[in-house]
Amino acid sequence: MLQKLLENNKVWAARKIERDPDFFRRLSRQQTPRYLWIGCSDSRVPANEIVGMDPGEIFVHRNVANQVHPVDLNCSSVLQFAIHGLKTSEIILCGHYGCSGVRAALEGNATGLSEHWLAPIQSIIDSNKSDLDSCQEEEERRDRLCELNVAQQVLNLAESPVIRAAWRAGQKVNIHGWIYGLKDGLIRDLDISLFGPNR
Questions:
Q1: Terminal CA-to-CA distance of the chain, rounded, Å?
Q2: Which residues are catalytic?
Q3: Which of 97, 179, 83, 193 is nearest to 137 (CA)?
């Protein structure tokens, strides 16, 4: 089974070289992505592919339910490296409809470490109870929670010490909240972008 993945890789690399003989040479020289993508680990949401970009054009961080926890050293390290090392100026926080992590939090059936990781979504549920209760269908309710989760993670990013320090230093860092539709392959801008400390 793993051998198939290695074979697929050879085919992919050969196709890349066939279309653009200098692709890997250019890619190996320097990583200068303008965008940092923070998204869900869901295998159905490949960041580069859904926005039509090649490797090297987007710096990517993924975790279950696209969370930005204040104490997550992994996410903070990615932010630090993207902003200070790569000088990335656009951060896209992208969730997706049909997120299993969001659904597990909503239904209360996350267990073990997942339960701990998804606990902040319960606060989103509690503080948006009337909004969520107004949804007519369960799928609509789950989708609305996916959107609310993106909005909260955008705010969490804005409160990150890494982002705050960059803004204080006058560095251009913009944060955008998007959501991807598994059913149609389209990304929707949730119109919750932040362009600095005064928002």
A1: 49
A2: 40, 42, 44, 96, 99
A3: 97
Instruction: Please tell me the pTM assigned to this model.
Output: 0.90
pLDDT band at 74 (very low <50, low <70, confident <90, very high): very high
pLDDT digits (tens, 9 = 90+) for 137-182: 999 999 999 999 999 999 999 999 999 999 999 999 999 999 999 9
According to DSSP H, which parts of the chain are helical?
2-19, 23-29, 47-50, 73-80, 100-107, 112-127, 129-133, 138-158, 161-168
User: 70 and 164 in contact (C-beta within 8 Å)?
Assistant: no
Query: How far, in Å, CA of 16 to CA of 132, rounded?
Result: 46
d(CA 92, CA 102): 19
